[in-house]
Write a structure and sequence with these properties.
heterodimer; A: 281 residues; two-stranded antiparallel sheet; B: 298 residues; Rossmann fold; 2 domains; six-stranded mixed beta sheet; 10 helices; 33% helix
Amino acid sequence: MKLLWAQFTGELTKLFARRRTYIGFAAFLATELLILGLLHLPAAQKALERTVENSGYLFHDYYSGLTLAYLMMTNTLFFLGSLYLALVAGDVVAKEVEDGTLRMILSRPVSRVRLILVKYAACAVYTTVMMFYITVTCLAAAIINQGMGSLFVYSPMHGIFSFMGASEALWRFGLAAILLSGLTMTITTMAFCFSCFNMKPAAACVIALTLLFLDLVLQLMPYFSSIHGWLLTYHMGVWNHVFDPHLDPWMFLESLAYLWGVNASFLFVGTLHFYTRDFKA
Amino acid sequence: MLEIRGLAKRFGGRVALQDVSFSVLRGSLFGLLGHNGAGKSTTIGTVLGQIHPDAGQVRVGGHDVFRERAAALSRVGAIFETPSFYGYLSGRRNLEIFTAYSRICPRETLDQVIRRVGLSDRIEDRVDKYSHGMRQRLALAQALLPDPEFLILDEPGDGLDPEGIAEMREMITTLNRQDGMTILLCSHQLDEVRRMCRELAILREGELVFSGDWRELGHLERAVEIRTDRTPESLRLLQDRRQLVLDGGVWLLGPGASLHECARILVEAGHRLEHLAECGNDLEYFYLRQTGARRKTS
């Protein structure tokens, strides 16, 4: 157990000591601040005001840090989040093969399956840290800028229209961060799986993103509404329902179960290939 | 310590290894030679379980590398031609990370090995600030940290300056003689192998062409070098007079022949002799003969 812990912390050190791991963190912060600035433009404020006041609520009460935080999260998370998760997870095995460090590790008595699982666990930590970071920075930036206030959520795509007070909203943001860590592991797992094949790190990232965006395109096309239940991005989007007036835990569990089934399949395929492949100089 | 039996491997249509068998005895310093692409790295890859053979068996310390990986590699250390590290981490953290895949290593042991390879002053520096020689020392440290009984060295002196090569040689010899480590040394530097190894295996295009003690082959002491104003003609003349025989691209003194007699024949025939010498225990001759390469005997 002590040895496993040493291996796991070693993998975390490798992941978090690299500068490129932090590109995603820096990019997110910059994007959040940019969106925050743009939401202050008169045109954006007018549109938001119209939506809130048409529902019979006072715009002043709901044009708040919490509302802006939700808007920032929902608009940045999928595209930027998937990009940086895939970038880091696609690197984990393929970059080590490219650099030759994996060959040094594989001269040790560790089994390949164990090595892959330790690396995957490190990726899971990165995914969780990234999702909490996004949630916390969105909330912090928006609250500092606009004050706490109350939360207004309007998402036609997910059929959500809700208003809630600050304390209710804050724990829902917490729940969203936890849920997002589980849901976005699918992006990480896909990139990680491709990283186990004989390809460059960038290729692993691009293939994972291509599959993901194809999935999103299918979700956005109305002709495929009957197969939404099979699409990964559909299930990844259920975190928005954390802000529904009435929470449906079964919806979350169903999506998590589906996505973790997909994760297990990708992980199995990646591990199987890693187990059987040759590592040459 | 190492037993390789009937090893075969193909990469696509290319044969990398074909029915390779040899053994390395416990406590020996064994050389593995061959041209580029002869199969040395593939052999080392299979010994470390990094390359799956199509046929054959590799046993380290009596354990099958593929079926009992943990037991087989628990006391094995390896250095590769170009040692790779995490450049953004310190030398110490690199050692800790690599060692964690073998065993938990106490800090004192780590410090002891760091001192032994002479890296104490720079061990907290980032590895991307290290010179090639320092990286080689760090590679040696990571290979020594599992407390190995068997050390695999793939071109350990590659890229080192003469001083570094001498230091590395001394270190290898010490590890073998004083610490009793079994060492498999894979190198292009024949002179280094000649100085250190008695036992060796030679690979040619994936096939084993020699395995054993190369110095026991007495006839090698009779390899000669000749240079005259018309060398090819001189060689033919000496061959006709049964003074020289051609063996695998190497000219050897024939039975009962001597350098003195060769010189007399050439001078009497009017050839201007520029150089005539016996090569003695020359691994280069031996190696070229085994690999079938031609060397100018001029």
